[in-house]
């Protein structure tokens, strides 16, 4: 059996971090060697050492870092990966233009995969949206995203990357954001023409779809050459 890929989970105490910890425990191709959060409640849990944000430089050796944190935490994990020469898988949304540029620059030295959404369904939705936009020239394009009330950024990262796909197809998307209850994530891309309308919608039922996709990507990114990767590069 291959040696499990050693993961560092950044943002481990969060909603996504908790899903990553649980789902990694069900796999034999990865293992968690460090968990990092802003203020860890414990030093060791289930055999995994926890570290605070300020202790990043002291984390043990790892093969790939998986980051689902917040923009203010992102620079630290990117710097650690660049310094240690380790790949970074990140799903943190709301990054600034400077942070996206730093990610691109780091990709010359380490493998990097940033995705606004790690679900298979949304990967396919991007392709459908681009095709629909190209076929429906002159139609209105509106992207409506709904998330739980704790989500900080708006429009969501997924709405923006769906918008980029619509733009590649020639549309000029507009955005609307709803924050309500405990909605995990819904994205509606609506094309409206004279007398008719197409709605393409993705509904996430739980966070496990994102966590599974990120773990799969992390295992597949291990050992790759430096560069910028996309979810679909690592799907099979
Ligand atoms: P959350 O608020 O529940 O968790 C945030 C985590 O970041 C916590 O563990 C917190 O301790 C940690 N953190 C905050 N500040 C920190 C710091 N300075 N240093 C180190 N750690 C710090 O958030 P969540 O719902 O788990 O979402 C996390 C991120 O993932 C968000 O940006 C969200 O939009 C994104 N997300 C992406 C996808 C995807 O598929 N790409 C899916 C869901 C969520």
Explain briefly what this protein structure is.
This protein has 236 residues and is α/β, with parallel strands linked by helices. The chain has helices spanning 15-24, 71-84, 97-106, 120-135, 157-168, 208-221; strands at residues 5-10, 30-37, 44-45, 48-52, 64-67, 88-90, 111-114, 140-147, 174-179, 185-193, 196-204, 227-229. Strand 10 and strand 11 form a beta hairpin.
Model description:
With 236 residues, the protein is of the alpha/beta class. It folds into two domains: 5-114 and 208-234, NAD(P)-binding Rossmann-like Domain (Rossmann fold, 3-Layer(aba) Sandwich); 120-204, 2-Layer Sandwich (Dihydrodipicolinate Reductase, domain 2), CATH 3.30.360. The chain has six helices and twelve strands. The chain has helices at residues 15-24, 71-84, 97-106, 120-135, 157-168, 208-221, and strands at 5-10, 30-37, 44-45, 48-52, 64-67, 88-90, 111-114, 140-147, 174-179, 185-193, 196-204, 227-229. The strands form two sheets. An eight-stranded mixed β-sheet has the order 3-4-2-1-5-6-7-12, sandwiched between helices. A four-stranded mixed β-sheet has the order 9-8-10-11, covered by helices on one side. A hairpin with a 2-residue loop joins strand 3 (44-45) and strand 4 (48-52). The longest helix is centred in the middle third of the chain and has 16 residues, at 120-135. Bound molecules: nicotinamide-adenine-dinucleotide. The site of nicotinamide-adenine-dinucleotide (NAD) has 25 residues, from helix 1, strand 2 and helix 2.
């Amino acid at each position: 059996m291959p040696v499990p890929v050693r993961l560092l989970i950044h943002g481990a105490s969060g909603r996504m971090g908790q899903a990553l910890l649980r789902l990694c425990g069900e796999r034999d191709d990865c293992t968690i060697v460090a968990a990092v959060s802003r203020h860890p409640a414990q030093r060791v849990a289930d055999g995994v050492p926890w570290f605070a944000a300020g202790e990043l430089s002291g984390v043990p050796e790892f093969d790939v870092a998986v980051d689902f944190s917040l923009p203010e935490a992102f620079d630290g994990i990117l710097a650690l990966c660049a310094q240690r020469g380790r790949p970074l898988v990140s799903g943190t949304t709301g990054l600034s233009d400077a942070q996206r540029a730093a990610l691109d620059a780091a990709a010359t030295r380490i493998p990097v995969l940033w995705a606004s959404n790690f679900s298979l369904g949304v990967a396919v939705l991007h392709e459908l949206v681009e095709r629909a936009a190209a076929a429906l020239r002159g139609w209105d394009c509106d992207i409506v995203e709904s998330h739980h009330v704790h989500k900080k950024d708006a429009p969501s990262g997924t709405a923006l990357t769906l918008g980029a796909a619509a733009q590649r197809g020639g549309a000029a998307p507009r955005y609307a954001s709803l924050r309500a209850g405990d909605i995990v994530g819904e994205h509606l891309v609506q094309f409206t023409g004279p007398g008719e309308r197409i709605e393409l919608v993705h509904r996430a039922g739980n966070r496990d779809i994102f966590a599974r996709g990120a773990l799969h990507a992390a295992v597949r990114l291990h050992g790759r050459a430096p560069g910028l990767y996309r979810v679909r590069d690592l799907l099979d």
